[in-house]
Amino acid sequence: MPNLDVKVLRYMSNDEFRVLTAVEMGMKNHEIVPSSLIEAISGLKRGGAFKLIRSLAKNKLVGHQSKPYDGYRLTSKGYDYLALKTLCKRGAIAAVGIQIGVGKESDIFTAVRPDGEEVAIKLHKLGRSFRTLKKNRDYTRPGQSFNWLYMSRLSALKEFAFMSALHAKGFDVPTPIDVNRHVVVMSLAHGYQLNAVQVLRNPATVFSSLMELICSLASYGLIHCDFNEFNMLIDDEEKVTLIDFPQMVSTSHSNAEYYFNRDVECVRAFFKRRYGFEAVNVPTLEADTCNKHELDKELAASGWTPSQAKDFQAVNEAMAQGDEGEAGEEEEEEEESDEEESGEEGEEEGDEAEGGEVERQPEEVKAPAGDATVLQRAPAAVTPVHGSQSGGAEASSAGGGEGGATAEQAPAAAAAVVEAAAEEGPSAVAGGVVACEALLGASNLNEEEDELPLHAPNRSVPVHSGQARTAGEMRASNKATGAKPGAGGPVCVADRVKQELRRKNSLRQAKGGSRNEVKNREARKIASSVKRELNGTSGW
After folding, report:
1. CB atoms within 10 A of CB 251
2. Which has the closest alpha carbon to 254: 290, 223, 299?
3. 226, 338, 351, 495: which one is catalytic?
4. pLDDT tens profile 346-399
5. Is 236 one of the catalytic residues?
6. Is domain 1-74 in CATH 1.10.620.20, yes or no?
7. Yes or no: domain 197-299 corresponds to CATH 1.10.510.10
8. Interhelix angle 76-90/14-26, nearest 10 degrees
9. The domain 90-188: what is its CATH number?
């Protein structure tokens, strides 16, 4: 068999199973079980345990790893052997047959019980091709690490629990027999997979029976979540048997309606595609189901837990209290609004009674120059900051007082005028603007002052020849003074480099080129002379 070879199982000793069980127990809190821990758990001597571990590793029942430390881990085949050995001891099975089915998360084989009855065994294999466990299952908590062998065991236990409950309620499901680790033993359902059936005698009858099965499951508080042609077996009498249950959820699940509609749509689309039968009406979760039993609570199906039930009850109580509180608040708001309306009416009547007695008007103060009204007597004379500002002269001639503010005091006085104008109201804004113009020495604050030209500063310190920044300035200063460049200057270094290059070029020209050029030239001469001698010619 491709995935389950039990030939070695017949010849394994009890000590080997003891060591294999020790590896399984060590993997509860170790990813790789050290050899010393295996010896301690198994209770065997060091030499005997090491020999048995080597034998198990040879048959691929355990895997050896040397990093980060030397140890062993249990393989999927070793886990299969432990489950089958236990089921054989219980009398659930006596022999293993052929493989009859394979899926993304399980393998199905035939088996024989001690009395000769043929049964089916289902080995859950999570992590092989089905790896989206955290997304599609609720076996783990957020952030929890897990082992694929342990997750396969949880999946098998869930399926056995759902199958037992549904079989007890009279649903057409296989009869559960036993379960150990990740292996479920069930009765062999005689029929064909609906996906392999090309023609049905009564497709409408079969479709109706499937819809009734979906609604019956929902009435018991369960949704299959994978109700399709691959998980239904049909016999010669067109009687359907449902299989595959680990993914079932409760009708209290937040997405229960979505899963229910998806199951219905899968069956409807298959019958339309394969048998040409299209249903006019299909059931819905709210309208066509009723709560007969609460199997989801008994089995703790996904979507319902006792803590969630308590939370749901607390939310309902909080919502009821909130409704009562909102009703009371609305009544209080209505009373407050009535009181406010009555108070506003009384204030309006009082204002009408007092309106004709006294009216306060802002006092107007005449400025010493001009017709505009101001709220504060501001000093008129301002010392101009620049000589080119004509506004300062105009302000000083308009004021003509000895107690005028200086240029440093003008901004503070203008700020005081603005604050006074803001306190009195809009009627004093025009006067405040005129006073600010007078204080700041400008005829109109919106006009821009003439920009003064910025003259470049005169160079007061002469630049000597040794302080020249460029080679051109240095050469010009040298020519003007007749001096030579000083040692260490930039021009001196450049001149020395040029002189050295000229000297080397002159020596190279005198020698006829560099040493390599001379050698190459001599070699070419020798080669040309040899060619002439071979050709019978002489001379250069």
Report:
1. 24
2. 223
3. 226
4. 555 555 444 444 444 444 444 444 444 334 444 444 444 444 444 443 433 444
5. no
6. no
7. yes
8. 120
9. 3.30.200.20
